[in-house]
Amino acid sequence: MPVIDSLWGIAFKDSKPAKVCQWIDCPDAQIEYEKRKMKMCARCNVVRYCSKSCQRLDWSEHKLYCQIPPIMDIAGWMARHKSLFRWALMEGLRLRSEPSNIFQYVLLVELTRMDRLMKGIAPSPFFVESMRLKKYSDIEELIVDPYKGSQKIIEAGGIGQGIVVFKVSEGRPGGYALFRLQYHDFHEKLAGEESPSRTGWEKIARGVVNGEIPIALLSRRIEGPPNAASST
Ligand SMILES: [Zn+2]
Ligand SMILES: [Zn+2]
C-alpha cells in the first residue's frame, strides 16, 4: 500500500510483508519460513501464506480486511486531525501553567500504518500507538531549533510555536521510519484549567484519532477555551 505525502507531492517505497504465514494454526509455524516460498495475498499484498490451504483456511478471517489498498496520505491525515493534535500539545506540555515547556518538549506521536495491523478494520490510515513528550535533544533524527519559529510570536506577546513529531515505523526490525513535523502557533496566553490528570490527555487524543472515542463526546473539552483557534 503506497504511502504518499500530498503536501510535498511524493510517494514512499513500499516494502514487502514479513515472511510469516498468516494462518494462525499454520501446521508449519514452527519451521523456518525464511527458507520457503511464501506467496502474498494477491488482492491486498499485505499478508503471506505458505500454502493454498493455509490461505483458504484463513479466508473467513482475512476477508474482513482484505481490500485493494487505498492510498495512505500522511499529510492529509495530519491536517485532518490538526486541531486534536494542537489540543494534545497544549495539554501534554501544560502550556497554561508552564508556557516555557514549549521550548523544552515536542509531542512525539508514534504511528503504525493501518495495513501493518494484522486484524480488524482500522478507521484511519494510521494508528496511533503512543503519544508522549520528548525533549528536543532526544529527537536525534531531527535537528530543530526550538526558538526559531517562536521569535515573532513571543515578540507579539504569545507563547511560541509548538511541534508535533510524527514517526511512522515499518513495524519490524530494520524497517525505515518516516518523520513528519506539524507546527502549531500559540499566539495568546492560555487561560483556563489544566487537564484533569497529567496522563488523561494522551488517552483521550489517542482514542479519538484511533476511532475508539467519538469526537462528539469531547467537543466541550476540546473546543472550550479560546485557544482552540487553528494555527496557520
Ligand atoms: Zn501456513
Ligand atoms: Zn488479502
Automatic annotation (TrEMBL):
InterPro entries (UniProt xref): Znf_MYND
Organism: Mycena pura
Domain MYND-type: 26-66
UniProt entry keywords in alphabetical sequence: Metal-binding, Zinc, Zinc-finger
Residues forming coiled coils: none
Protein's UniProt name: MYND-type domain-containing protein
Keyword Zinc: yes
Taxonomic path: Eukaryota, Fungi, Dikarya, Basidiomycota, Agaricomycotina
SUPFAM superfamilies per UniProt: HIT/MYND zinc finger-like
Gene Ontology molecular function, alphabetical: zinc ion binding
